[in-house]
Specification:
40% of the residues lie in helices and 16% in strands. By secondary structure, the chain is an alpha/beta fold. It has one domain: Luciferase-like domain (TIM Barrel, Alpha-Beta Barrel), CATH 3.20.20. The strands form two sheets. An eight-stranded parallel beta barrel has the order 1-2-3-4-7-8-9-10, surrounded by four helices. α1 links the parallel β1 (2-6) and β2. α2 (70-80) packs parallel to α3 and α6 (192-201) packs across α7. The longest helix is centred in the last third of the chain and has 17 residues, at 212-228. The radius of gyration is 19 Å and the shape is globular. It starts with a strand and ends with a helix.
Protein backbone atom coordinates (compact mmCIF):
# COMPACT_ATOMS: atom_id res chain seq x y z
CA UNK A 1 0.00 0.00 0.00
CA UNK A 2 1.24 3.47 -0.91
CA UNK A 3 0.45 6.37 1.38
CA UNK A 4 -0.20 9.86 0.09
CA UNK A 5 -0.55 13.00 2.19
CA UNK A 6 -3.20 15.70 1.87
CA UNK A 7 -1.84 18.66 3.79
CA UNK A 8 -3.68 21.80 2.65
CA UNK A 9 -4.99 22.30 6.20
CA UNK A 10 -1.77 21.26 7.95
CA UNK A 11 0.20 24.51 7.71
CA UNK A 12 -1.75 26.81 10.05
CA UNK A 13 -3.89 29.79 9.08
CA UNK A 14 -1.12 32.18 8.04
CA UNK A 15 1.33 29.91 6.24
CA UNK A 16 4.51 31.06 4.59
CA UNK A 17 6.28 29.53 1.62
CA UNK A 18 8.69 27.96 4.10
CA UNK A 19 5.82 26.22 5.88
CA UNK A 20 4.72 24.49 2.68
CA UNK A 21 8.32 23.62 1.79
CA UNK A 22 9.04 22.13 5.23
CA UNK A 23 5.96 19.91 5.14
CA UNK A 24 6.43 18.62 1.59
CA UNK A 25 10.13 17.95 2.20
CA UNK A 26 9.25 16.01 5.36
CA UNK A 27 6.68 14.00 3.38
CA UNK A 28 9.35 13.15 0.81
CA UNK A 29 12.02 12.40 3.41
CA UNK A 30 9.77 9.93 5.25
CA UNK A 31 8.99 7.93 2.11
CA UNK A 32 5.38 8.82 1.43
CA UNK A 33 4.29 8.32 -2.18
CA UNK A 34 2.60 11.64 -2.95
CA UNK A 35 1.57 15.05 -1.63
CA UNK A 36 -1.82 16.56 -2.48
CA UNK A 37 -3.18 20.11 -2.43
CA UNK A 38 -6.85 21.11 -2.32
CA UNK A 39 -8.43 23.71 -4.61
CA UNK A 40 -10.80 26.56 -3.92
CA UNK A 41 -10.54 29.90 -5.72
CA UNK A 42 -12.74 31.57 -3.09
CA UNK A 43 -14.77 30.52 -0.06
CA UNK A 44 -18.11 32.34 0.31
CA UNK A 45 -18.96 33.68 3.75
CA UNK A 46 -22.46 32.19 3.52
CA UNK A 47 -22.72 28.58 2.36
CA UNK A 48 -26.01 26.74 1.90
CA UNK A 49 -24.67 23.99 -0.38
CA UNK A 50 -24.25 20.71 1.49
CA UNK A 51 -20.67 19.51 1.95
CA UNK A 52 -20.70 15.86 0.76
CA UNK A 53 -18.31 14.44 3.37
CA UNK A 54 -19.85 15.47 6.69
CA UNK A 55 -22.97 13.97 8.24
CA UNK A 56 -24.74 17.32 8.67
CA UNK A 57 -23.52 18.84 5.38
CA UNK A 58 -21.48 21.55 7.07
CA UNK A 59 -18.10 22.47 5.52
CA UNK A 60 -15.33 20.20 6.70
CA UNK A 61 -12.88 23.09 6.98
CA UNK A 62 -12.78 26.61 8.50
CA UNK A 63 -14.07 29.26 6.10
CA UNK A 64 -10.87 31.28 6.58
CA UNK A 65 -8.59 28.35 5.75
CA UNK A 66 -5.89 29.32 3.21
CA UNK A 67 -6.18 27.87 -0.29
CA UNK A 68 -3.27 29.19 -2.40
CA UNK A 69 -3.45 28.97 -6.17
CA UNK A 70 -2.77 25.28 -6.79
CA UNK A 71 -0.55 25.69 -9.84
CA UNK A 72 1.64 28.41 -8.37
CA UNK A 73 2.03 26.39 -5.17
CA UNK A 74 2.75 23.11 -6.96
CA UNK A 75 5.37 24.79 -9.13
CA UNK A 76 7.06 25.97 -5.95
CA UNK A 77 6.81 22.53 -4.34
CA UNK A 78 8.23 20.91 -7.49
CA UNK A 79 11.33 23.06 -7.10
CA UNK A 80 11.65 22.05 -3.44
CA UNK A 81 11.43 18.27 -4.01
CA UNK A 82 13.07 15.61 -6.15
CA UNK A 83 11.09 12.37 -6.16
CA UNK A 84 7.66 12.70 -4.56
CA UNK A 85 4.57 12.82 -6.76
CA UNK A 86 2.59 16.07 -6.52
CA UNK A 87 -1.14 16.32 -7.11
CA UNK A 88 -4.38 18.26 -6.92
CA UNK A 89 -7.07 16.71 -4.78
CA UNK A 90 -9.06 17.86 -6.43
CA UNK A 91 -8.92 20.63 -9.02
CA UNK A 92 -12.42 22.04 -9.58
CA UNK A 93 -12.04 21.93 -13.33
CA UNK A 94 -15.37 23.40 -14.57
CA UNK A 95 -14.61 26.71 -12.86
CA UNK A 96 -11.63 27.30 -15.15
CA UNK A 97 -10.69 27.81 -18.77
CA UNK A 98 -9.54 24.36 -19.96
CA UNK A 99 -6.96 25.77 -22.36
CA UNK A 100 -5.28 27.62 -19.50
CA UNK A 101 -5.50 24.52 -17.29
CA UNK A 102 -3.89 22.40 -20.01
CA UNK A 103 -0.98 24.84 -20.17
CA UNK A 104 -0.60 24.93 -16.36
CA UNK A 105 -0.69 21.14 -16.06
CA UNK A 106 1.91 20.69 -18.79
CA UNK A 107 4.13 23.31 -17.18
CA UNK A 108 3.94 21.73 -13.71
CA UNK A 109 4.67 18.33 -15.22
CA UNK A 110 7.72 19.83 -16.95
CA UNK A 111 8.94 21.62 -13.81
CA UNK A 112 8.55 18.48 -11.71
CA UNK A 113 10.17 16.15 -14.22
CA UNK A 114 6.97 14.20 -14.80
CA UNK A 115 5.74 13.92 -11.20
CA UNK A 116 2.33 15.60 -11.52
CA UNK A 117 -0.98 13.86 -10.74
CA UNK A 118 -4.11 15.66 -11.96
CA UNK A 119 -6.92 15.06 -9.52
CA UNK A 120 -10.15 16.42 -10.99
CA UNK A 121 -13.62 17.04 -9.56
CA UNK A 122 -16.79 18.79 -10.63
CA UNK A 123 -17.17 20.74 -7.37
CA UNK A 124 -19.90 20.88 -4.75
CA UNK A 125 -19.88 24.54 -3.63
CA UNK A 126 -22.66 26.20 -5.62
CA UNK A 127 -21.99 29.62 -4.10
CA UNK A 128 -18.38 29.51 -5.29
CA UNK A 129 -19.51 28.85 -8.87
CA UNK A 130 -22.03 31.68 -8.70
CA UNK A 131 -19.48 34.16 -7.36
CA UNK A 132 -17.14 33.23 -10.23
CA UNK A 133 -19.90 33.66 -12.82
CA UNK A 134 -19.95 29.96 -13.69
CA UNK A 135 -23.05 27.78 -14.15
CA UNK A 136 -23.23 25.17 -11.41
CA UNK A 137 -25.73 22.95 -13.25
CA UNK A 138 -23.36 22.59 -16.22
CA UNK A 139 -20.37 21.40 -14.23
CA UNK A 140 -20.71 17.73 -15.21
CA UNK A 141 -20.86 18.12 -19.01
CA UNK A 142 -18.31 20.93 -18.90
CA UNK A 143 -15.87 18.70 -17.03
CA UNK A 144 -16.19 15.99 -19.67
CA UNK A 145 -15.63 18.44 -22.51
CA UNK A 146 -12.77 20.21 -20.74
CA UNK A 147 -10.91 16.93 -20.19
CA UNK A 148 -11.28 16.11 -23.88
CA UNK A 149 -9.92 19.55 -24.79
CA UNK A 150 -6.89 19.12 -22.56
CA UNK A 151 -6.13 15.65 -23.87
CA UNK A 152 -6.26 17.02 -27.41
CA UNK A 153 -3.94 19.94 -26.61
CA UNK A 154 -1.44 17.64 -24.90
CA UNK A 155 -0.88 15.81 -28.18
CA UNK A 156 1.31 18.70 -29.29
CA UNK A 157 -0.76 20.36 -31.98
CA UNK A 158 -1.75 21.98 -34.10
CA UNK A 159 -5.12 21.01 -32.59
CA UNK A 160 -8.58 22.48 -33.11
CA UNK A 161 -11.74 21.67 -31.20
CA UNK A 162 -15.49 21.85 -31.78
CA UNK A 163 -17.61 21.28 -28.70
CA UNK A 164 -20.72 22.56 -26.98
CA UNK A 165 -18.89 25.00 -24.70
CA UNK A 166 -15.60 25.64 -26.53
CA UNK A 167 -14.67 25.96 -30.18
CA UNK A 168 -11.28 27.03 -31.48
CA UNK A 169 -9.24 26.61 -34.67
CA UNK A 170 -5.95 24.73 -34.86
CA UNK A 171 -3.54 26.01 -32.21
CA UNK A 172 -0.19 25.15 -30.65
CA UNK A 173 -0.01 24.85 -26.86
CA UNK A 174 3.54 24.05 -25.81
CA UNK A 175 5.13 22.63 -23.74
CA UNK A 176 3.37 19.30 -23.70
CA UNK A 177 3.56 17.12 -20.57
CA UNK A 178 6.61 15.02 -19.80
CA UNK A 179 4.41 12.03 -18.94
CA UNK A 180 2.92 10.25 -21.92
CA UNK A 181 0.29 10.59 -23.12
CA UNK A 182 -0.33 13.00 -20.22
CA UNK A 183 -0.29 13.09 -16.40
CA UNK A 184 -2.74 10.64 -14.85
CA UNK A 185 -6.26 12.09 -14.61
CA UNK A 186 -7.74 10.93 -11.31
CA UNK A 187 -11.38 11.70 -10.66
CA UNK A 188 -12.90 12.25 -7.24
CA UNK A 189 -16.53 11.75 -6.30
CA UNK A 190 -18.63 8.73 -5.38
CA UNK A 191 -21.87 9.25 -7.32
CA UNK A 192 -22.87 7.21 -10.36
CA UNK A 193 -22.14 10.23 -12.57
CA UNK A 194 -18.65 10.51 -11.05
CA UNK A 195 -17.92 6.84 -11.69
CA UNK A 196 -19.12 7.18 -15.28
CA UNK A 197 -16.57 9.98 -15.72
CA UNK A 198 -13.88 7.67 -14.40
CA UNK A 199 -14.98 4.87 -16.72
CA UNK A 200 -15.06 7.17 -19.74
CA UNK A 201 -12.09 9.46 -19.24
CA UNK A 202 -10.12 8.62 -16.09
CA UNK A 203 -6.82 6.98 -15.31
CA UNK A 204 -7.73 6.64 -11.64
CA UNK A 205 -10.40 7.05 -8.98
CA UNK A 206 -9.96 8.73 -5.60
CA UNK A 207 -13.25 8.59 -3.67
CA UNK A 208 -13.79 9.71 -0.11
CA UNK A 209 -13.73 7.33 2.83
CA UNK A 210 -16.68 4.93 3.03
CA UNK A 211 -17.54 1.60 4.67
CA UNK A 212 -15.68 -1.36 3.23
CA UNK A 213 -18.80 -3.09 1.89
CA UNK A 214 -19.99 0.11 0.19
CA UNK A 215 -16.59 0.52 -1.45
CA UNK A 216 -16.66 -3.10 -2.63
CA UNK A 217 -20.05 -2.56 -4.27
CA UNK A 218 -18.92 0.62 -5.97
CA UNK A 219 -15.77 -1.02 -7.30
CA UNK A 220 -17.87 -3.80 -8.83
CA UNK A 221 -20.09 -1.14 -10.39
CA UNK A 222 -17.04 0.69 -11.73
CA UNK A 223 -15.68 -2.55 -13.19
CA UNK A 224 -18.95 -3.02 -15.08
CA UNK A 225 -18.95 0.59 -16.32
CA UNK A 226 -15.41 0.14 -17.62
CA UNK A 227 -16.35 -3.08 -19.42
CA UNK A 228 -19.34 -1.39 -21.06
CA UNK A 229 -16.95 1.22 -22.50
CA UNK A 230 -14.38 -1.30 -23.64
CA UNK A 231 -11.80 -0.12 -21.14
CA UNK A 232 -9.45 -2.19 -18.98
CA UNK A 233 -10.44 -1.93 -15.32
CA UNK A 234 -7.03 -3.30 -14.29
CA UNK A 235 -5.35 -0.21 -15.75
CA UNK A 236 -7.03 2.13 -13.24
CA UNK A 237 -5.19 3.38 -10.17
CA UNK A 238 -7.49 3.13 -7.17
CA UNK A 239 -7.07 5.20 -4.02
CA UNK A 240 -9.21 6.24 -1.10
CA UNK A 241 -9.01 8.71 1.76
CA UNK A 242 -8.19 7.63 5.27
CA UNK A 243 -7.63 8.92 8.76
CA UNK A 244 -4.12 8.41 10.16
CA UNK A 245 -5.51 7.83 13.65
CA UNK A 246 -8.09 5.31 12.41
CA UNK A 247 -5.43 3.33 10.56
CA UNK A 248 -3.17 3.25 13.61
CA UNK A 249 -6.09 1.91 15.65
CA UNK A 250 -7.19 -0.58 12.98
CA UNK A 251 -4.07 -1.55 10.99
CA UNK A 252 -5.94 -4.51 9.47
CA UNK A 253 -7.93 -2.01 7.36
CA UNK A 254 -4.88 -1.55 5.12
CA UNK A 255 -4.87 -5.22 4.11
CA UNK A 256 -8.64 -5.17 3.65
CA UNK A 257 -8.43 -2.24 1.23
CA UNK A 258 -5.49 -3.77 -0.58
CA UNK A 259 -7.52 -6.94 -1.12
CA UNK A 260 -10.09 -4.82 -2.97
CA UNK A 261 -7.41 -3.48 -5.32
CA UNK A 262 -6.86 -0.16 -3.54
CA UNK A 263 -3.22 0.72 -4.10
CA UNK A 264 -3.01 4.03 -2.23
CA UNK A 265 -4.50 5.72 0.81
CA UNK A 266 -4.51 9.51 0.93
CA UNK A 267 -4.23 10.64 4.53
CA UNK A 268 -5.38 13.97 5.88
CA UNK A 269 -2.79 15.52 8.20
CA UNK A 270 -4.21 18.66 9.79
CA UNK A 271 -1.85 19.75 12.53
CA UNK A 272 -2.48 23.17 14.05
CA UNK A 273 0.83 24.32 12.55
CA UNK A 274 3.73 23.07 10.46
CA UNK A 275 5.63 21.63 13.41
CA UNK A 276 2.60 19.68 14.60
CA UNK A 277 1.91 18.28 11.13
CA UNK A 278 5.54 17.19 10.69
CA UNK A 279 5.35 15.40 14.06
CA UNK A 280 2.17 13.61 12.96
CA UNK A 281 3.84 12.58 9.70
CA UNK A 282 6.80 11.14 11.60
CA UNK A 283 4.57 9.27 14.04
CA UNK A 284 2.50 7.62 11.29
CA UNK A 285 5.61 6.64 9.36
CA UNK A 286 7.11 5.08 12.48
CA UNK A 287 3.97 3.25 13.66
CA UNK A 288 2.50 2.10 10.32
CA UNK A 289 4.93 2.46 7.43
CA UNK A 290 7.97 1.09 9.30
CA UNK A 291 6.03 -1.64 11.12
Amino acid sequence: MQFGVHFSLGVGFNPTADDYARVVQKIEELGYHSAWIADHIIIPEKIEAAYPWTEDGSPGFPLRAPFPDVFALLGFLAAKTKTIRLGTSVLVLPQRNPIEVAKSVATIDMLSGGRFLLGVGVGWLREEFEALGEIFSERGPRTREYVKIMKALWQGGPIGFEGKFFQFPAVHALPIPVQKPHPPIIFGGESLAAMKRVAELGDGWQPGAMPLETLREKLEQLKQLMAERGRDYASLSLATFGSPDAIKQQPESVAQLSALGISQMVLGFMGKNTQDTCAQLEDFARVVMRA
